[in-house]
Amino acid sequence: MQVGIVGLPVSGKTTLFSTLTRQDISGLHEGRKIEVHRSMVKVPDQRLGQLAEIFYPKEKIPTTIEYIEVGGIEKEQAKTQGFDPQFLQVLKTTNLLCVVIRAFENEFHPHPEGSINPLRDIQTVETEFLLSDLSIVENRIHKLEKEVLKAKDEEGMKELELMKRCHAWLESEKPLREMEFSDDEKFRLRGFQFLSAKPMVIVINLNEDDLQQSDKITSQFSAYRDRPNLAVISLCAKIEQEISQLDSEDAKMFLEDMNIEEPALNKLIRTSYNLLNLISFFTIGENECQAWTVPKGSTARKAAGVIHTDMEKGFIRAEVVNFQNFIEHKSFAKCREKGILRLEGKNYIVQDGDIMTVRFNV
Length: 362
Ligand SMILES: Nc1nc2c(ncn2[C@@H]2O[C@H](COP(=O)(O)OP(=O)(O)OP(=O)(O)O)[C@@H](O)[C@H]2O)c(=O)[nH]1
Ligand SMILES: [Mg+2]
Description:
Elements: E1 2-7, H1 13-21, E2 35-42, H2 46-55, E3 59-61, E4 64-71, H3 75-80, H4 85-92, E5 96-102, H5 118-150, H6 154-171, H7 183-190, E6 200-205, H8 214-218, E7 230-235, H9 237-245, H10 248-258, H11 264-275, E8 278-283, E9 288-295, H12 300-307, H13 309-313, E10 315-321, H14 323-329, H15 332-337, E11 342-344, E12 355-360
Parallel strand pairs: 1-4, 1-5, 3-9, 5-6, 6-7
Antiparallel strand pairs: 2-4, 8-9, 10-11, 10-12
């Protein structure tokens, strides 16, 4: 699963990416060639800490998702011709778009438009996504119309009808993520990797001084609040970067001073994870406690395959305890005694937080 970090020039993309991934990438691109940064990011999950307090494992292994940052959109191009096609191509392979919107002032690095206006910027970015999708849909309609007329092809007709509906929707300036599709239509559309159909997190990058009154700025985005597959988060990338450079004690104090519970980045990562429709289950032991990722709705057998392909092939059953129950009783033996350890077959649907042991033979 991949999250694409995208935004207008000088919005704080690299600051956010390098803080998320703890990589030292600095410098503005300012119109240099397209450059893509990729890195795996640990998904913060306090449940792993709770398990570690029971087992004191040698290793505590969080699950990860990949973040990709695309830098170097040429400023003039962003203004006049939209995003570079090469840039859009990289974004297409991602599963979620994380759009960084600038709300911070910085006189040394002026905004390409000359002023700070978060709402204008999100509209600019969304329009780019819509236009990119629209041009794909138009090409497809063009091609299908020719083909369908030649050979009365029923499948082609269905697709043509679907494409025309998408076209009308996009023309009315609405993203495809807000359109309703049947399962069959979703399947037909998958290959096109439409940008406006991807779930999206809007990250409003605030001034250091505005953190305490972020509501004022984020309230401008109230129209975005209830939209499907979309989330709005505000943070200050600069401050997040500073927090990440402190050791854990200092970071704790810093957060307390600022009256913040945890770094906003944690919330961003978790929000990404939820929008991607992912859940975590855990395996436990004295050697390691580990979080694993599966799409919501996965069966126990599929989940076993995430740990090891042999476990999927030779799956016999899973021993499962719900997370809260486990924390209460602290061992599989105790849970078995209490009758809350369940034996589940291959079709069991894994729930977020399940503690699992897979029985299998090879
Ligand atoms: N004051 C302030 N400055 C910030 C913040 N976030 C980023 N900056 C500064 O803004 C400048 C641009 O940040 P980058 O993270 O490089 O922005 P970018 O979107 O990657 O820029 P390009 O790659 O050129 O498109 C840097 O000098 C950052 O230090 C912030 O929250 N507050
Ligand atoms: Mg950059």
